Structure formats: C-alpha cells, structure tokens
C-alpha cells in the first residue's frame, strides 16, 4: 500500500505540469456584491501580498487582462449555464477557449479550467453533458497546444459522498457510478486533478453534535475526543483531513491507474449567520482560516496520502452581499466590499510576513471596540503617550477615513513602535490588538512599515473602514502563508 502511494505521488509530480511543487493556499474571487472593486484594484492587492493562486467563478476578461504579467496562477471557470452549450458543441468549446484562454496566455498565467460548479449536486439534469464539455474543452486546448499547461476538471461537492466517516468506508453516491467513473478516467488520462469543495462548517453543523467543534476548527482534541477510523486506525486531527481522505477512498473504487491528486477548490467558514447559525461567528472564521493555512502549508497530505499536499483555495476574498440563501452565504469573505477586513489573518499566501521581521508587528484598534474607549485611548496616545499624530490631522495623509477607529489605529501603532523596546504595550484598556499585517494604505504609511504604496491602492489591513466611494481597497491580509458554497444554481 505504501509503495502504491509513493508511485502515485511520483506520477503526480512528474505528470502534472501545472500543479505547483509544494503546497499553496489560494483564494476564490466571487463577484456577487454591490460594490465590486475594479480589476486593477484587485490585482494591486494580490501583487502586493505575493498571492500566487486565485480561482475565478467565470472568465472575466477584464480581470484576466489586469492579471497579465503578474505570474499569478489563475483558475478560470465555465459557469453552469455555459456547460450545456459547450457539452453539445465542440465548436462552442473551441470558441470559449479562444476567447477566454488563448487570447490571454502566456501573459496571463492560466493553469486550470473548472467546468461548472458542483454540477452533479446542483443541476443533475446537466450530468449527461458534463464530461462531453470537459472533453471538448480539452480537445480545444490540444488544438491550441495548451493542454500541457492547462488542466480541465470539475468541482465536486462533498454531498456526493453520503457517509464520509469513517473515511476508509466512504463511497460516492452509487446513482452516479457511470458518470464518476468516466470523469475519473478523463482526469487520469489528461493528468488533471480532482477538484473538491469541502466545508467542515457544513459537516459540523449537519453532524448534530456527533463531532466536537474543535475537530472542525483544526483545534487540538483531548484524549477522550480523539477521532479514529476504526478500519485503518488513522487518527484525524481535523474534519478537513477526513473529508479529503474520504474522497481519496471513494475514488479508489473506480480508479486503478494511479492516484489522482485532490485540490480543494473551496473551503471556508462564515463569520456571520442567521438566528439558527450560531457557529457562524467572526471568532470561528478567524480560527478556522488561520489553522487551515498552517495545516495546508506544512506540505503534508491526509493520513492515507501523506505525500500529496492538500492545495486549497479559501472561499472567499470579498463578502458577496447580493447572494441568495441563508445569511451565512453572504458572509464568507475576508473583506467587506469597502475594503475593510472582517478579521485578521497573520500570514500572507506566500508564507512570508508582510512586515519587517524585526518590527514585531503593528498595533491597531480592535475591531468593534467601544468608540468612547477608543477616543480615550486615542487622546492618551496623542497626549501623554507622545505619539506623533500629525498624519491624522485634517488634510494629512492618514486623516481619511475620518473615523475614531482609523485614527486610533495610527496613534496606537505610532506609540507602540516608539515605546515597545522600553516596555510600551499594545493594549489601551483592551481596545488594541497586534497584527503582522501592514496597515499602511495609499500615502498613509504606518510607523514601522517597510512597504511603499502600490498605486495608492493598498489600504488599512485591520480596523479602519474606507469612506464611501473611496478607491483604496484594504490590503489583503489573508493570504496567508490561502465559493461560496458557491453553487451557481442556474437551470438550463
């Protein structure tokens, strides 16, 4: 068994040219929001944080143009309502490739095409054309001599595995046996990856208390709560690992020509929800994504496939306030549409810090802190604390946005950077927190920053909220050392 796993890994490493060597965390970029930042603003954020992988839910030509010469690896998508036409017509597939792929490469680094989103789960009537659509697109790539650079696959939902635990006994829904078998054969032949949308949030909620929330959040489990597969005796420290392993096991019943690597195309945790979604909180979302980043970037796979990294795309960059469905569906984003952060993530996607390593981080106002307490802290920092607060005076670079939270962040940080070496702390009666994300934006440079403004498009990384209509977008603190439950549920 171990030899088989090793051979599968070698096949993956040498046969799949567009899969990055080493683990990565990417991010999904949805567009169903009221005030979508411009493509240029989005790319400025990505470049400033050295984000290397993104997934689009369509093939937005404006954004693909803006991504030119950035080196960022881009996964584009065929939307669900395009699958039927492409599956029925090779000419339509060739036209789609010419318009949305060939027209942009090699300047834009497109490396994968996701055909639909959870098609078998959300629009099962399209199942007969799903594989033909994938085949037609692949053949069009071959005709354009792009098939060695760009993979074709389709994201599956965990709903396709009715009983994911124990992972060793997991199987796909048998009603889809023929379709899944054919898709796996296609992925193996074309050396593509299996795309999986795996949400421990939903797994935890639907378990009705069977699994502890620590298991869903990558938290340490006490000895009495250890999760063990009774058949393999593998210990699972997270539901995420178990979901990936369940999918590997489900695939093994069909595929005999080697292991098909899994890429998790969507995962995340909502930071807000309705009255019956009590676990959708800012704290849980922050814990989940930070722990996810650490888990993926350690480079190991799940217990059954430890040599295959679990490359993952977090859902998602911005909160999509126009999405239909439960409140939680609108609340997966790391950022609000105005660019302010929902919560802090300490590492960028490349695995490096966004601040000077010797700085010890930045001190900023705690999101949601009492305004009157922030005012007290601001007044103390600019007075007895002797912080240099000239930059937050009217007309100066850090005056806008004109909020107590924004001004307090600048003053707190200036005090902290000046006084930390002699015992100054980042507390201010509980209204301040430290972050490794540089809060500088535009021409407003926070003390201790080594970053320069990128076209004036990199705003506060924590706390401050931009004024209405502002073009500055908050610096993407995620990404991390990186769908919503997106299902583009459109009928043909």
Can you offer a commentary on this structure?
Residues 361-446 form the X8 domain. One of its GO terms (molecular function) is glucan endo-1,3-beta-D-glucosidase activity. It catalyses: Hydrolysis of (1->3)-beta-D-glucosidic linkages in (1->3)-beta-D-glucans. The protein has 492 residues and is of the alpha/beta class. The chain is 32% helix and 11% strand. It has helices spanning 2-15, 39-48, 61-66, 80-88, 90-102, 119-122, 127-143, 177-189, 200-206, 213-216, 239-252, 282-297, 371-382, 404-419; strands spanning 25-29, 53-56, 73-78, 110-115, 151-153, 155-157, 194-197, 227-228, 235-236, 262-267, 312-314, 362-365, 432-435. Strands 5-4-3-2-1-11-10-7-6 form a nine-stranded parallel β-sheet. Strands 8-9 form a two-stranded antiparallel ribbon. Helix 5 packs across helix 7 (127-143) and helix 7 packs parallel to helix 8. The protein starts with a helix and ends in a 57-residue tail after the last strand. The relative contact order is 0.15. Residues 1-21, 349-359 and 452-492 have low confidence and may be disordered.
Task: Explain briefly what this protein structure is.
The chain is built from 14 helices and 13 strands. The protein is an alpha/beta fold.
């Amino acid at each position: 068994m171990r030899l088989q796993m090793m051979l599968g890994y070698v096949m993956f490493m040498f046969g799949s040219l567009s899969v990055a060597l080493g683990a990565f965390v990417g991010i999904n970029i949805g567009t169903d929001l009221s005030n979508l930042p411009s493509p240029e603003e989005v790319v400025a954020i990505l470049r400033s944080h050295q984000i290397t992988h993104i997934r689009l839910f369509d093939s937005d030509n404006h954004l693909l143009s803006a991504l030119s010469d950035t080196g960022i690896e881009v996964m584009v998508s065929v939307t669900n309502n395009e699958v039927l036409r492409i599956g029925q017509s090779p000419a339509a597939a060739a036209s789609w490739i010419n318009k949305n792929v060939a027209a942009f490469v090699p300047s834009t680094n497109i490396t994968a095409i996701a055909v639909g989103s959870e098609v078998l789960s959300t629009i099962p009537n399209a199942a007969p054309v799903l594989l033909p659509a994938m085949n037609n697109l692949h053949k069009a790539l071959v005709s354009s001599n792009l098939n060695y650079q760009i993979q074709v696959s389709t994201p599956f939902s965990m709903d396709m595995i009715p009983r994911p635990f124990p992972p060793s006994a997991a199987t796909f829904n048998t009603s889809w046996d023929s379709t899944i078998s054919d898709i796996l054969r296609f992925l193996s032949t074309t050396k593509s990856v299996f795309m999986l949308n795996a949400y421990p949030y939903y797994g935890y909620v639907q378990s009705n208390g069977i699994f502890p929330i620590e298991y869903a959040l990558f938290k340490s489990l006490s000895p009495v709560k250890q999760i063990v597969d009774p058949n393999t005796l593998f210990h699972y420290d997270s539901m995420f690992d178990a979901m990936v392993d369940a999918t590997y096991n489900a695939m093994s019943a069909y595929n005999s020509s080697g292991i098909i690597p899994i890429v998790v195309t969507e995962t995340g945790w909502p930071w807000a929800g309705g009255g019956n979604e009590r676990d959708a909180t800012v704290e849980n979302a922050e814990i989940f994504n930070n722990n996810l980043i650490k888990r993926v970037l350690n480079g190991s796979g799940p217990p059954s496939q430890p040599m295959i990294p679990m490359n993952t795309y977090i859902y998602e960059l911005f909160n999509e306030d126009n999405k239909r469905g439960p409140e939680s569906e609108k609340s997966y984003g790391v950022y609000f549409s105005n660019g302010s952060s929902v919560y802090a993530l300490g590492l960028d996607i490349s695995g490096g810090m966004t601040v000077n390593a010797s700085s010890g981080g930045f001190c900023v106002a705690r999101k949601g802190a009492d305004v009157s307490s922030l005012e007290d802290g601001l007044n103390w920092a600019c007075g007895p604390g002797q912080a240099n607060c000239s930059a937050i005076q009217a007309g100066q670079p850090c005056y806008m946005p004109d909020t107590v939270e924004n001004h307090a962040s600048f003053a707190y940080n200036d005090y902290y950077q000046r006084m930390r070496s002699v015992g100054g702390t980042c507390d201010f009666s509980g209204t301040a927190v430290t972050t490794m994300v540089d809060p500088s934006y535009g021409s407003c440079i926070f003390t201790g920053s080594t970053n320069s403004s990128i076209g004036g498009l990199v705003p506060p990384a924590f706390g401050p909220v931009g004024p209405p209509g502002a073009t500055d977008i908050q610096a993407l603190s995620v990404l991390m050392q990186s769908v919503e439950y997106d299902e583009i549920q459109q009928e043909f």
